[in-house]
UniProtKB/TrEMBL annotation:
InterPro entries attached to this UniProt entry: Reg_factor_effector_dom_sf
Protein name: Polyketide cyclase / dehydrase and lipid transport
Origin superkingdom: Bacteria
SUPFAM superfamilies: Probable bacterial effector-binding domain
Organism from which the protein derives: Soonwooa buanensis
UniProt lineage: Bacteria, Pseudomonadati, Bacteroidota, Flavobacteriia, Flavobacteriales
Length: 345
């Protein structure tokens, strides 16, 4: 009994020492971290004010492969928000909000973790310097009650390390994005070329839809969002981990009242997919006739006919048409397509 009383006394003393020591720790801490990205501000800022972009390169989110996300409108700028959660432990979650935006200059985020009453306040300032951008992060930790202030003893090095890793991820994503933009800018449209296509593995959906007026492109946009969101959110793939979206269809069905097509994105290897709505499809390598097209989606038919006429003239047979979207499809805008017709004797 005496030992129990002695143990309780020791615990009370230790608790008292801890409580007194916490009075010397600040309720909240502030850290300022500076970083630099080797791309102009008009390329960098959209990666910050759009939380879908932000979550794909920021190490705070990418380092945990079990995180799932929900995004809420508006999807970018002031008022946008997202919720993230551990897919294995549903009680672990958080929320992030864009509370203020001065375009191309500043952003303020609020980050709530689990059941915290107070958020992290993150102010980010952007300074464009031609072909590079300076970024200044000001991070304020949540206000903590006396007995939880030990959390604020976290060193600045932890934040610096997270931001350094994030900037490396961002630089890689922007590099691929700029390379793609430069490639698109150099394309010569409406000329038939012959290419040797490499084989590819696609993950996507099989679709049948109406071909009246603009119903087809509207349906494509829906399935584009469906496939890309599944690959990013459910499979946890970043933008540089899958290829441009591709639509595969019979080149002779553009006059039919209903069109069937497969829509998918290229993955480096086959992975386990539990959702039966999504299937893998292999695109075989070989000789293809290629034409690049820019304009309304309905207007692509003339270019498709050019490819088929070329195949007929060369006494070649052909397989399904492949429409590779060089930019994200939009029902209200022109499209940029790489039209490929695989041919063989």
């Amino acid at each position: 009994m005496r030992w129990i009383k002695f143990g309780v006394l020791i615990l009370i003393i230790l608790f008292g020492i801890y409580a007194v020591s916490m009075t010397f720790v600040e309720e909240r801490k502030e850290y300022t971290v500076q970083s630099k990205v080797g791309y102009p501000i008009d390329k960098v800022f959209p990666q910050f004010n759009n939380l879908q972009n932000f979550s794909h390169w920021n190490d705070f989110f990418t380092s945990d492969k079990n995180l799932g996300f929900s995004f809420f409108t508006p999807y970018s700028g002031q008022g946008s928000s997202m919720k993230f959660f551990n897919k294995k432990k549903q009680d672990q979650f958080g929320e992030m909000f864009v509370r203020y935006e001065n375009p191309m200059r500043t952003l303020r985020y609020q980050l709530f973790l689990e059941d915290e009453s107070y958020p992290y306040l993150i102010d980010v300032k952007f300074v464009g310097k031609g072909e590079s951008t300076d970024i200044i992060w000001k991070i304020q930790t949540p206000k903590q009650p006396l007995l939880k202030r030990s959390i604020n003893l976290m060193t600045e090095g932890v934040f610096v390390d997270k931001i350094d890793k994030s900037i490396k991820h961002l630089t890689a994503i922007l590099g691929n994005k700029v390379d793609k933009e430069n490639l698109i800018a150099s394309i010569k449209y409406d000329s038939i070329m012959i290419e040797n296509q490499e084989s590819a593995l696609l993950l996507g959906v099989n679709v049948s839809t109406s071909n009246k007026k603009d119903a087809l492109i509207k349906n494509i946009v829906i399935n584009h969002n469906k496939v890309v969101n599944f690959v990013k959110q459910d499979l946890g793939k970043k933008d540089d981990e899958f290829g441009s979206p591709m639509l595969i269809t019979n080149p002779n069905n553009f006059k039919d009242k209903e069109v069937s097509y497969y829509y998918g994105v290229a993955l480096p290897k086959r992975i386990g997919v539990q959702d039966n709505n999504y299937t893998f499809r292999t695109v075989n390598g070989g000789k293809t006739y290629v034409i690049y097209y820019q304009g309304s989606y309905a207007g692509r038919i003339k270019s498709v006919q050019q490819l088929m006429q070329k195949a007929k003239k060369d006494t070649m047979r052909y397989n399904d048409l492949q429409e590779q979207f060089l930019e994200e499809p939009d029902a209200g805008s022109d499209v940029k397509l790489k039209l490929q017709l695989p041919v063989y004797r």
